[in-house]
Amino acid sequence: MVKTWTVGYWPIPFRGNFVKVILEYAGEEYDVMETSEVIQLKTAAVSAQPVPFIGPPFLLHNESGFAISQTAAIVEYLVRKFGFVPESPELAALAQKAVLDCIDVLVEITRHNGNQMWTRDAWSEFRGPGKRLDQCLGVLEELAKRHGLKEEHSTGFFLGTEKMSAADFAVYALFEQLARCMPPLIHDLERAAPRVWKLCQRIGENPKLQAFSNAQSQRWGRSFCSGQIEASIFSMIEQDEKAS
Ligand SMILES: N[C@@H](CCC(=O)N[C@@H](CS)C(=O)NCC(=O)O)C(=O)O
């Protein structure tokens, strides 16, 4: 039977998880498109694509035929659809900002989606106390702190909202995969964004998200973004581990 949604993405977590964690949390039924079909749609003429796009993820609403690409736009669509948008326009805008901040971390850690591989020099400017990754994580930490999130909180969300917003889904999608695929980075998350890391651990206690995380580990192991850039990131982290 055709499910409500179809997600088009590669067989890795990366950007796709920003979409999937919302569908999982909301208890929505979705299919994941076969990779061959993603390739077929990605390389089709734009006039033949369900929504004109360059790179996945994309999401299809099967009943209506509505299709949307661009990670941040898909997240915005889903949070609106399922009622996870803060009432205040200011908080709604800050939630969107946090989504884009999280996606920026994916862009930066992959050196703009694998445009360049890591060198030791470049990596030493990126990872370490006070370095670029810490700064990116620190931006999220400061935003959550300004909205009242405390490390010791056992309730409450990123922007002080009563329920999850796009910001919570995005930080969870980001931190969960960084920690699961590259466990030494947990140290960086704890150092640079302790409140947000605790929040993500709390969000991850949700049984649906826990099952989703376990399923991804079983299916793909520690695969994060795949390809040469994944090998480059993993080798930098391995060298850091040996040196420590
Ligand atoms: N800005 C887009 C970027 C999409 C993107 O770069 N997708 C990657 C996978 S994460 C891809 O497969 N790109 C192929 C391409 O650019 O040709 C988004 O956030 O969705």
UniProtKB/TrEMBL annotation:
GO biological process, one term: glutathione metabolic process
One of the Pfam families matching this protein, by short name: GST_C_8
MF terms in GO: glutathione transferase activity
GST C-terminal domain location: 88-224
InterPro entries: Glutathione-S-Trfase_C-like, Glutathione-S-Trfase_C_sf, Glutathione_S-Trfase_N, GST_C_proteobact, GST_superfamily, Thioredoxin-like_sf
The organism's place on the tree of life at top rank: Eukaryota
Domain GST N-terminal: 3-86
Gene3D superfamilies found in the cross-reference section: 1.20.1050.10, Glutaredoxin
Protein name: Glutathione transferase
Organism: Timspurckia oligopyrenoides
